Amino acid sequence: MQQVQGQRHPTARAQGNKRGLLLGAQLVGTRGAEISKRVDTYATALHHGMTVATMSDLDLSCTPPLGSPWDAVQLATQAWERQTRTSTLV
Fold first, then answer.
1. Where does the source fall among the domains of life (predicted)?
2. How do the pLDDT tens digits run along the chain, 90 residues long?
């Protein structure tokens, strides 16, 4: 399980299986962190059987002058991919 925190983002955690299928996610944040938007994104991905890699490639809205071009959803899935890649190399 991989967790990512950001100043303007909620804490997001993504979980996948050995084949890369998204199994679940957790989000915690403040009222202004737009948690519901991110929950909807994960719920849609789970409903359609998306992989963690596919989640990382989603084209989600962002405001780069105000924050990262990557959403917390993508940051968590990218972190999971990195962790999985390094654990399989060892």
1. Bacteria
2. 445 554 456 888 999 999 999 999 999 888 777 888 889 999 999 999 999 999 888 888 877 776 677 888 888 999 999 988 887 665
Q: At what angle do helices 72-89 and 35-47 cross, to 10 degrees?
A: 50
This prediction has a pTM of: 0.74
- DSSP character for 7? S
Do residues 10 and 29 lie in contact, with contact meaning Cβ atoms separated by under 8 Å?
yes
Q: Does domain 9-83 have CATH number 3.40.50.1450?
A: no
Give residue 3's pLDDT.
52
Q: Are 9 and 35 in contact (CB under 8 A)?
A: no
Instruction: Quote the CA–CA distance of 28 and 60 in Å, as a whole number.
Output: 19
